[in-house]
Specification:
The protein contains 19 helices and six strands. With about 450 residues, it is mainly alpha-helical. The protein folds into three domains: about 100 residues, Orthogonal Bundle (Fumarase C, Chain B, domain 1); about 200 residues, Fumarase/aspartase (Central domain) (Fumarase C, Chain A, domain 2), CATH 1.20.200.10; about 60 residues, Fumarase/aspartase (C-terminal domain) (Ribonucleotide Reductase Protein R1, domain 1, Orthogonal Bundle). The chain has a two-stranded antiparallel ribbon. The protein has a two-stranded parallel sheet with strand order 3-4. α3 crosses α5, α5 crosses α6 and α16 runs antiparallel to α17. The protein starts with 17 loop residues before the first helix and ends in a 10-residue tail after the last helix. The model has no long low-confidence stretch (mean pLDDT about 95).
Length: about 450
Amino acid sequence: MSELNKLTAISPVDGRYRNATEKLADYFSEAALIKYRVLVEIEYFIALCELPLPQLNDFDKKLYTSLRNSYLNFTEADAQQIKDIEKITNHDVKAVEYFLKEKFDALNLTSQKEFIHFGLTSQDINNTAIPFSLKDSMTECMLPLLGEIITKLTSLALEWKDVPMLARTHGQPASPTRLGKEIEVYVVRLQKQIAQLNAVPYSAKFGGATGNLNAHHVAYPQIDWLKFANDFVNKSLCLNRSYPTTQIEHYDNFAAYCDAFKRINNIIIDLDRDVWTYVSMDYFKQKIKVGEIGSSAMPHKVNPIDFENSEGNLGIANALFEHLAAKLPISRLQRDLTDSTVLRNIGVPLAHSLIAYKSLLKGLDKLILNNATIELDLENNWAVVAEALQTILRREGYPKPYEALKELTRTNSHITEQSISTFIDTLNVSNDVKKELKNISPSNYTGI
């Protein structure tokens, strides 16, 4: 069997696009999941010491640093050791427990090691480790990149704020707009949806085999385990504890997280398609990189491939977000295993989103404004000032102004500045109004 590398990987996420997605391996690879499980197990043990449980009352707190080094200095060799244990246990979380017990033996903590994973079920670890890794990935990877997109779009909106441009509603010439304003639309849309994404809690389940802290309560009925669980998840891990639960997290907030990402990605797909269309209209040209080939057959072509790449990857990402959001909140009775295998794919839609965001930024950096084409398009569409003319005529009490402009413009004849001027001369209005009307052009009729 061939060794796994970029050329032999089944998924392009880990193959062709590995350079773009490599950072996400720190949060969603198998090794990363194992590391976050170790983190939760260690922090849980320390929380039991801080409670303290009677048997851990005299635990040497100076050892906390050594315990935390188990995840702070976690290595690929550690992950492999745990995988080797799993070959025997056939249980991934139990393998982490046994790995840590070996660590405790090495630290001469044999008498305390049975309090590793005390009273817990595997989902207490998975349903805290996974939202923890998700939160880290957002803080350190996804949100900064979305911030770069907003910064870039804001810069372009400012740069092009005074560039008049023909609008097209239903694909047809419409009241002129400004290019910068059209870019700003995407800035505002993204900002609002990112704010909604940030408002979704990173929910975590922690409560034993069926969510009732049965084992904890039966062993130490005098301890307020509900408070302990809340403090551990909400304060120690800085997540949001769901209560009450079954054996697993509800995933309702995770579904909201997926839906929020879908909306963000849909906005970017909309942007990809708009910019692609402007490139096809020659509103934008693209910077040429020496040595690049646009078409294997047509030497002249410089294709908008970055926007196409972005759109395609966002489509895949959203299909997966759709499934995650629809599937995860549904589980038979107190739990079935379908969530476990699905959860392992959380990094995949984020990876496709990451590829798309980087492609979008690359494409935006290539754009060169083609003012000549934009100006010519405006000049060739004087009919769009009809809205302005009929509105002013309404103000002046002119009879049936809309109908008069409709008669002029809805013909197969080409409307020009001269034909508009000639029409204005026939109107029974004051010279001041005629002057006002003649001062309107496609280039200055751009609104607020």
